[in-house]
Write a structure and sequence with these properties.
- The chain has 693 residues and is of the alpha+beta class.
- The chain has 6 domains: 68 residues, no CATH class; 106 residues, PAS domain (Beta-Lactamase, 2-Layer Sandwich), CATH 3.30.450.20; 100 residues, Beta-Lactamase (2-Layer Sandwich); 114 residues, Beta-Lactamase (2-Layer Sandwich), CATH 3.30.450; 70 residues; 188 residues, Histidine kinase-like ATPase, C-terminal domain (Heat Shock Protein 90, 2-Layer Sandwich), CATH 3.30.565.10.
- The protein contains 19 helices and 24 strands.
- The chain has a 5-stranded antiparallel β-sheet. A 5-stranded antiparallel β-sheet has the order 7-6-10-9-8. A 5-stranded antiparallel β-sheet has the order 12-11-15-14-13.
- A hairpin with a 5-residue loop joins strand 23 and strand 24.
- Helix 1 packs across helix 2, helix 13 runs antiparallel to helix 14 and helix 16 packs antiparallel against helix 19.
- It is elongated and about 210 Å long.
- The relative contact order is 0.04.
């Protein structure tokens, strides 16, 4: 039986051997020439039996050896399958001969798939050449140390393995490569993550330091070394992290920051860094206490950020705010800063205007500063935070009201959007304006009517209705009539300008043709042109219709032409033209703004005359009231000094632009532009804003 003496056999086997030996003896005696006596047959039977028993014992021994080998291989396989390392045996050509359970789990192959696996599919392509070169060295009998390789699993996942390989021999011939592999993918991933972290820490501009549980330095990044003034090769282990702080900050670190970090895990605050040369730098600090699993603090890390610039800017901001406060308090205009309709800052004048204290205004919405009927519009302006300039009626704390001009502008205040409002009490100005209006009305009714009668009477006297006059009397009457007409024109211009500024000038709109406007204006000044011996040339290229007040446009064009004629030398030519304005873009995309409106290009009227021109410094004085650049010359040629101011107001009320260009000693060019028909027009409101009509 298996496990007994190698010569022991079972009784069944012994019985079979005895029977077989007897049969074999009979067969031999019958088929050979041996004697057939009973003794001879018995001897042959005994010999045959002995031979058969020997053969049986040899067969049993071979079977025992095969079973023992199989059991040993099974025990070895079980042992290898319990190993955490990956074990493989491959043929010289790379075919997989054996792999343990750890190998199969890592690479994702079943035991049945092993026969189809080779190193050609388990090694990454970029590493294949180096790996097979190492295998050839192993098969050649060379001793190769541990090496690392990148391999591919069945799911195409890349793993990093450390490999130790030896050669397997049979009868002195290399028949396999036996490899033990260790998965180091997590280790390499952690090392790469650590390397990336170090690169990040080295690239940051903040101080980053790590100390051990005793407070000694372990790591300080490049920015930190530069900040405290130590070299890249200086040993930070000889330095305590608290030593980089100023004495007062160091004490605070020990007494407050570190205990808080140990208790809560992290502490944040501001402290003072001290450089090697004794300079102090204000910094914001984050202190983290890293505890070990056995308890206690293992490491302490800290991040310090230089806030010198921030502190300086804060100081500058405080100084700026203080200056603003001083200036605003010195102003007679009310100034307020508000956010979302709530007051943040107000000056003394604002408090004085409304009768509130600064603390009271903190709880009062901005919209409560105006009468109820004004609030819906103010709510809209505040919600959109749009720039605006308007006149409003304000409400004081005691319930009384006053008129004010308010200008609001969006700003950024302490890092957030806000709104600054400047308010001017115009009650007195409005009172004076009403007095002026009453005066103008008086002039209109009390002066213009008698002046008209005086002009008519002087005209009759000049024509001889009252009898013949002496030449001297005739001159006096003519001078009186001329001055009376000039005074009537002055009164008319003042009334027109007053209506425009008050927003009471109504425009009677109609469709106009540029050619007709030019022709009408030229006809109106033809007599004056002949008197000054000046010829007028017309040049009309614009044939697009306009929408405007016919009489007012003619008034502007006539004013330009009459001025050009009066200031041109005798025998010269004044040119008037109407062209399409040169916008540089197609009509359909002319930009709005600056008086031009979106849509088709506007029409430009140009009056050009030779003459002395206008000095560059005087151009800005034009279009103002009662402005005559050469008073004596102007009186020689007549004029009230209001014509250009009225012209500017009329053009702007039509939504157009007006301007002048001059080359002193050569020529002067006055021009104005009006929108083409069908384009939105804008007019000036009495508050100085633009309103679409």
């Amino acid at each position: 039986m298996r496990g007994h003496h190698p010569w022991a056999i079972s009784w069944r086997a012994a019985w079979l051997i005895l029977v077989g030996g007897s049969v074999l003896a009979v067969v031999i005696s019958q088929t050979t020439r041996l004697p057939r006596t009973p003794g001879a047959v018995l001897v042959v039977g005994i010999v045959a039996t002995l031979l058969l028993s020997a053969v049986a014992r040899l067969a049993y021994a071979a079977q025992d050896r095969a079973e023992a080998r199989a059991a040993a291989e099974e025990r070895l396989s079980d042992f290898l399958d319990t190993a955490s390392d990956l074990i493989e045996i491959t043929a010289p050509d790379g075919r997989l001969l054996y792999a343990n359970q750890a190998w199969r789990s890592t690479f994702g192959y079943d035991e049945a798939d092993q026969s189809s696996v080779s190193t050609a599919v388990t090694v990454t392509p970029e590493y294949a050449e180096a790996y097979h070169g190492l295998r050839r060295r192993v098969l050649a009998g060379e001793k190769v140390g541990e090496f690392e390789g990148v391999f591919l699993t069945r799911q195409r996942r890349r793993v990093v393995l450390a490999v130790r390989a030896t050669c397997g021999y049979e009868n002195g011939k290399a028949v396999s490569v036996r490899s033990m592999l260790r998965d180091i993918t997590p280790q390499r991933a952690a090392e790469e993550a650590q390397a990336r972290l170090v690169e990040t820490l080295e690239a940051t501009t903040d101080f980053v330091g790590i100390g051990n549980g005793k407070g000694r330095g372990v790591y300080v990044n490049r920015a930190g070394r530069r900040m405290i003034g130590i070299g890249p090769d200086d040993d930070v282990s000889l330095m305590g992290l608290s030593a980089i702080l100023s004495p007062a900050a160091r004490q605070h670190q020990i007494n407050t920051a570190l205990p808080a970090a140990i208790r809560d895990g992290v502490w944040e605050g501001e402290t003072t860094l001290q450089t090697r040369d004794g300079r102090e730098i204000p910094v914001s600090q984050v202190l983290v206490a890293h505890k070990s699993s056995q308890g206690g603090v293992w490491f302490v890390s800290t991040i310090l950020r230089d806030i010198s610039v921030q502190r300086r800017r804060e100081a500058e901001l405080r100084e700026s705010e203080e200056r603003f406060r001083m200036l605003s308090d010195a102003s007679t205009d009310g100034i307020a800063v508000a956010r979302a309709g709530q007051f943040l800052e107000v000056n003394r004048a604002w408090c004085r205007m409304f009768g509130y204290t600064e603390s009271e205004l903190e709880d009062i919405p901005e919209a409560a500063m105006v009468v109820p009927e004004e609030r819906s519009r103010l709510y809209y302006i505040i919600s959109k935070n749009i720039p605006s300039t308007r006149q409003v009626v304000c409400l004081r704390k005691d319930g009384s009201t006053f008129e004010a001009e308010v200008a609001g502008t969006p700003i950024v205040y302490k890092g957030s959007p806000a709104r600054i409002t400047v308010m001017r009490d115009i009650s007195e100005w409005k009172r004076l304006d009403r007095m002026k209006s009453e005066f103008v009305s008086t002039v209109s009714h009390e002066l213009r009517t008698p002046l008209t009668s005086i002009r008519g009477a002087l005209g009759l006297l000049e024509s001889g209705v009252g009898g013949a006059l002496t030449p001297q009397a005739q001159d006096l009457v003519r001078i009186g009539r001329g001055n009376t007409e000039r005074l009537i024109r002055l009164i008319g211009d003042m009334l027109d300008l007053d209506k425009i500024e008050a927003g009471r000038l109504e425009l009677h709109l109609s469709t106009l043709m540029p050619a007709e406007l030019v022709r009408t204006a030229v006809d109106g000044v033809q007599v004056i042109a002949e008197q000054f011996q000046v010829r007028i040339e017309e040049h009309v290229e614009a044939h697009r219709t306009l929408e405007g007040d016919h009489d007012r446009v003619i008034q502007v064009l006539t004013n330009f032409l009459s001025n050009a004629v009066k200031f041109s030398p005798p025998g010269s030519v004044v040119r008037v033209s109407a062209v399409m304005a040169d916008t540089g873009v197609p009509d359909s995309i002319v930009a709005a703004g600056g008086g031009r409106t979106a849509g088709r290009a506007p029409v430009r009227f140009v009056v050009e005359n030779p003459g002395p021109g206008i000095a560059p410094g005087d151009i800005r004085l034009l279009f103002r009231r009662f402005q005559q650049l050469d008073g004596s010359d102007g009186r020689q040629r007549g004029g009230t000094g209001l014509g250009l101011a009225i012209s500017k107001a009329i053009v702007e009320q039509h939504g157009g632009r007006i301007g002048v260009e001059s080359e002193p000693g050569r020529k002067t060019t006055f021009w104005f532009e009006l929108p083409a028909a069908g384009v939105q027009r804008k007019r000036m409101t009495p508050f100085g804003g633009l309103t679409a009509v």
